[in-house]
Specification:
Blueprint lengths: L1 H46 L15 E18 L7 E2 L12 E10 L1 E15 L2 E5 L2 E16 L6 E23 L6 E14 L5 H7 L8 E14 L4 E11 L10 H4 L1 E15 L1
Antiparallel strand pairs: 1-4, 1-11, 2-3, 3-6, 4-5, 4-6, 5-7, 6-7, 7-8, 8-9, 9-10, 10-11
Length: 281
C-alpha cells in the first residue's frame, strides 16, 4: 500500500511541475504578443501623415482623474507541503468523507476564475513621460482549490476523491503605480507600468466562506502584491481611452489555518491575478 501511495505521489508532483511550466509559457506568450502588438501599432501610427491632434492640453495638466472597468482572473500560487502527503486523518471531523475509515492528503491545485473590477484613477504628472497613479478599486471574484484525497475503507481498495473548495473574494485594492509613457505619436501613446498594491479582502472570513469550507480553510484578510503591465492610450475629442493589461503577485502567505487535512498539505498560498482594463480619463 505504501509503495502504491509513493508511486502516485511522484506521478502527482511530476504532473504539477508540467502544469506549472505550461502556465509560465502561457504567461510569457501573452506578454510577448502584447508587446509586439503595441510596437506594431505604435509604428503604424508614427507613419501616419496629417494626423489631427486631439486633447493637446491634456498631457500638460499637473493632475487629472478618470475611471476604469476591468475583467480579472484570480488564482493562487501554491506550494505543497510534501511531508504531509500520506499522513492519516480522522474522517469523522469532516463532512466530505462519509463512510471512510481514514483519509490521506494526496495533492492540491488551483483553478483560476474570472471576475470583474471597477475603480477610479488619480494621476499625478511627474515628468512629461512619467506619472504617479493612485488607482483604488473594488474587485469581485473567487478562487477555487481542487484537492485530491485518498479515502480508505477497510477491506476495499483505496479510492481517490476530488474535493473542491470555493473561496469567494471581495477585494478593496489600493495600488500605487508608476507609469512610464512613450512619446505621443499622433493620438496614440504606449506605456509600461509597475507598482505595489495593498489589498483588503472583505470576504476572507465571511459567513458564506466559513459555511462552504467548514472553517478548515481560512485566509488572511490583507495582502501586499507587486504589479506590472503594459497598455496604450488613444486620444479622442473629449476623453482619453486606454487598454491596459497587468499581472499581480502577492507577497504574503494567505493561509490562516492549520491542523486539518485541507491546510496541512499547503506550505504556502500566494495570490496571483491578471486584469484587463478599459480606462477613461
Amino acid at each position: 500500500m505504501q509503495q502504491f501511495i509513493a508511486g502516485k505521489n511522484k506521478l502527482y508532483l511530476h504532473s504539477l511541475s508540467i502544469k506549472t511550466k505550461i502556465q509560465l509559457l502561457k504567461i510569457k506568450h501573452i506578454f510577448i504578443v502584447c508587446i509586439v502588438s503595441l510596437l506594431l501599432l505604435s509604428s503604424s501610427v508614427i507613419q501616419a501623415q496629417q494626423v489631427k491632434l486631439r486633447l493637446q492640453e491634456h498631457d500638460h495638466h499637473p493632475y487629472h482623474f478618470g475611471f476604469f472597468v476591468a475583467i480579472n482572473q484570480m488564482d493562487f500560487s501554491i506550494k505543497t507541503n510534501e511531508q504531509f502527503i500520506g499522513i492519516t486523518y480522522d474522517p469523522s471531523e469532516y463532512t466530505d468523507f462519509v463512510g471512510a475509515d481514514f483519509v490521506q492528503f494526496y495533492g492540491v491545485n488551483s483553478q483560476p476564475s474570472k471576475g470583474f473590477t471597477v475603480g477610479i484613477i488619480g494621476n499625478l504628472k511627474i515628468t512629461p513621460n512619467l506619472d504617479l497613479r493612485f488607482v483604488p478599486s473594488l474587485s469581485f471574484g473567487e478562487r477555487i482549490l481542487n484537492y485530491s484525497i485518498y479515502k480508505f475503507i477497510i477491506g476495499e481498495n483505496p479510492s481517490l476523491v476530488n474535493i473542491t473548495k470555493q473561496i469567494i473574494s471581495t477585494n478593496v485594492d489600493l495600488p500605487f503605480i508608476i507609469k512610464y509613457k512613450s512619446k505621443r505619436a499622433g493620438n496614440f501613446r504606449a506605456y509600461v507600468l509597475s507598482g505595489v498594491k495593498f489589498t483588503i479582502d472583505m470576504a476572507a472570513n465571511s459567513d458564506k466562506n466559513r459555511q462552504q469550507n467548514e472553517d478548515f480553510l481560512r485566509l488572511k484578510s490583507s495582502d501586499i502584491a507587486f504589479e506590472a503591465g503594459v497598455g496604450f492610450d488613444y486620444y479622442f475629442d473629449f476623453f482619453k481611452f486606454g487598454v491596459e493589461m497587468k499581472m499581480g503577485y502577492g507577497i504574503n502567505n494567505l493561509l490562516d489555518t492549520e491542523g486539518n487535512i485541507y491546510a496541512d498539505g499547503v506550505k504556502s498560498l500566494h495570490s496571483k491575478t491578471f486584469q484587463l482594463s478599459l480606462t477613461f480619463e
